[in-house]
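Deliverable D5.2: sample structural annotation.
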Amino acid sequence: MPSPLSEVPKKNTPHLADKIDRYGDLDLQVQLFAPIKEEHELLKKEIEASLADKPGDLPAVVDGRRYQIQLTARRNERTIVNKRKLFNRLKALIGLDGFLALITIPLGEGVDKNVPKSERSAFLVEERTGARTLSVVPQKPAAA
């Protein structure tokens, strides 16, 4: 039985080969950059935590020795505190079908966790249409 990888043509057009090689170069740089990004995110969280006592409704400025951090006022965030009351109000305004068109049910937490696999086909379709993962593998240099 042939390997699934054998179905992919080995010979690429020069244009595609150039794109693959450029992607490989960039992928290596992204991998090398990952620890820097991780440290950057960690420092950002530490700085934000140390500035948490600043008033959230006003911008703020904090100086380092070489850089300055400028904080904006906190963004407004909304949280639904009474789902049942909101459901009933929306159902009255737009009907049950209108409400159902608005919601998103999480497949993992909502469906997979609660509905047996044997029952899911009645309302769920699973197809292999999702994104693919690209893995970069260095080629052995061609003999001169």
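Annotation notes: The chain has a mean pLDDT of 90. DSSP finds three helices and two strands in the chain.
The annotation will be released with the project's public dataset once the embargo ends.
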